[in-house]
Specification:
Elements lengths: L1 H28 L2 H46 L1 H21 L1
Helix pairs in contact: 1-2, 2-3
Protein name: DUF883 family protein
Keywords: Membrane, Transmembrane, Transmembrane helix
InterPro entries: DUF883_C, YqjD/ElaB
């Protein structure tokens, strides 16, 4: 469910930034009161995009904490398997680096 929320937030942020770019173009050609209204809309869109990005950041941080906790628990419960996995990954990375 969180991934779906992240996808929606990303799409909304992209849309807000696209609309903001269009408003900036319109504001460049506007004068007087119309320019003030457009600049206010731009500021509003940017605040909304910033809020959504902060929400995404929070979601990503929460996922990272959960993953780190699960990894820590796994390593504590299965230390020898963790050592084996680490060695296998190290071997694979070594082979990949040596091929270059």
């Amino acid at each position: 469910m969180s991934e779906k929320l992240d996808s929606v937030l990303i799409d909304e942020t992209k849309d807000a930034l696209k609309e903001t770019a269009q408003l900036i173009e319109a504001a460049a050609n506007a004068q007087g009161e119309e320019a003030k209204v457009l600049y206010a809309k731009i500021a509003d869109r940017l605040r909304g995009a910033k809020h959504r990005l902060l929400e995404l950041e929070g979601n990503a941080l929460e996922k990272a904490k959960v993953a780190a906790k699960q990894t820590d628990e796994y390593v504590h419960n299965h230390p020898w398997q963790a050592v084996g996995i680490g060695a296998a990954v190290g071997l694979l990375v070594g082979f990949l680096v040596a091929r270059r």
